[in-house]
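INTERNAL AUDIT FORM
Audit reference: QA-55
Scope: verify that the stored structure record matches its stored sequence.
Auditor: D.O.
Record contents follow.
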Amino acid sequence: MNAFTLLPFIVLIAAMFLMTRSAKKKQHQAAQMRNEMQPGSGVRTIGGMYATVKEVNEDTVLLDAGPGVDLLFAKNSIGAVLTDDEYNRIVHGIEHDLKTDADVVPDDASSLTETDEAAAAAAASDDKIDLGKDLGEKDAAERADDAIQAAEDKADAAEAKAAEAKAADEPKKTDGESGQK
């Protein structure tokens, strides 16, 4: 046999080996995650339900889904074990306060290059233009004009519809010939 005839079979076997290897690795990681579950940790089931682990057994997990609601699930039905911050953000809507952990980032680069004296002089200056106020007033005026135009268009459409209805209700005039004698 020739090496070129064996090459496709070798490539196919190698691809199958790599695919099964990655699948086994994912299964091992999922099993390890499920085995490391502890009471009190937040989890998400494969069905998308969020709950707190109350008790962990060999093949089952007792979950606390709410006050007085305890559910028994198979360990394999746990999709993810969540961190405390992630669980609180999703279930209770509690956002982690980022301001306490990190330095404050300025909104613009001018505060990075100004000295304290220059910043005080700029703050004391009355020559500043409040662009937000000017733009806001312009936007409000434009919105009012748009609302008036929309109301006028609506009234014109209603008048046209009424004229069409009136024309449809009037009897049609003929030249005097009718099928009746």
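Auditor finding: record pair retrieved intact. Residues 174 and 180 are 13 Å apart (CA to CA).
Action required: none
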